[in-house]
Design brief:
Order of helices and strands: HHHHHHHHHHHHHH
Largest sheet: none
Shape: elongated
Number of helices: 14
Structural class: mainly alpha
Number of strands: 0
Strand content: under 5%
Mean pLDDT: 91
Helix content: over 70%
Distance between the termini: 26 Å
């Protein structure tokens, strides 16, 4: 599931970069400069140049103290470098300044989930979904499902993943955990269906191959299990999943 979380985080960071629009149709000189510095901060962050990113983002906050995007991106940077209290302050300020920005609400919910604040996180995810103008409600719904899976609440997680798939039937980050849930619930045939849908939408990973192996073993399909096993050994030989495969080889 870690790879799924990373995909979702990448989507969220891209959203921060692509929605840098100020509410004022004629921004001031300081606001224009803040927008540019925020975009530069995102670019530096993507390159792993965190010190330079922090410098640009601090300039943006000084230039336009009410520019929500600068706080949202600063929050992601603070997370990256392990400054979690600062990240929470930045996230909270961003959603205070832009209470209807679904991407920021979603990102704060994801952060709260990583800090174990599940109920509060779900509230922000639901606020994001409730924005009728938000074009990707499957993202906060998928994040909510992953959050609940981490807590071992498969029943509520399944509800969120199914809502995500109703919003977007091809949303890969919900298809793979749905396959895992159905397998754990003893429904390997349904798990296979979700897994096959995932494979049609996204590249195979060590996690998806290992899940495919377990599903096919449960269904007694030795040929399919062997095919997935070969791919896992060849493509991800040093992965944790490959180690598990070696330990369970018949």
């Amino acid at each position: 599931m870690r790879s799924v979380l990373m995909v979702i985080l990448a989507v969220l960071l891209s959203a921060c970069a692509s929605t840098n629009q100020l509410s004022d149709p004629e921004p001031t000189k300081g606001e224009k400069a803040a927008r540019i510095n925020t975009q530069l901060g995102v670019a530096y962050m993507r390159e792993g140049q965190y010190e330079q990113a922090a410098d640009k983002l601090q300039k943006a906050l000084r230039q336009a103290p009410h520019y929500a995007e600068a706080y949202a991106v600063s929050a992601v940077l603070a997370e990256r470098i392990g400054e979690h209290e600062k990240a929470q302050r930045y996230h909270r300020r961003a959603v205070e300044l832009a209470p209807d920005n679904a991407s920021m609400l979603n990102n704060f919910g994801r952060f709260l989930c990583t800090r174990g604040k599940v109920d509060e996180a779900l509230g922000y995810f639901e606020r994001a979904v409730g924005n009728s103008l938000y074009r990707t409600p499957e993202v906060p719904l998928g994040n909510a499902g992953l959050c609940l899976m981490r807590e071992g609440d498969r029943t509520r997680a399944e509800d969120y993943f199914l809502r995500a798939l109703r919003a977007n039937p091809t949303f890969a980050p919900a298809l793979l955990p749905m396959a895992e849930i159905r397998l754990q619930n003893g429904d390997a045939l349904s798990a296979r269906g979700f897994h096959q849908r995932y494979v049609e939408q996204a590249p195979q990973t060590a996690a998806s191959l290992w899940l495919g192996i377990r599903i096919e073993r449960e269904l007694g399909n030795r040929d399919a299990a062997a095919s997935y096993s070969l791919l896992l050994r060849n493509n991800f030989p040093d992965s944790e999943e490959a180690r598990k495969l070696r330990e369970t080889a018949h």
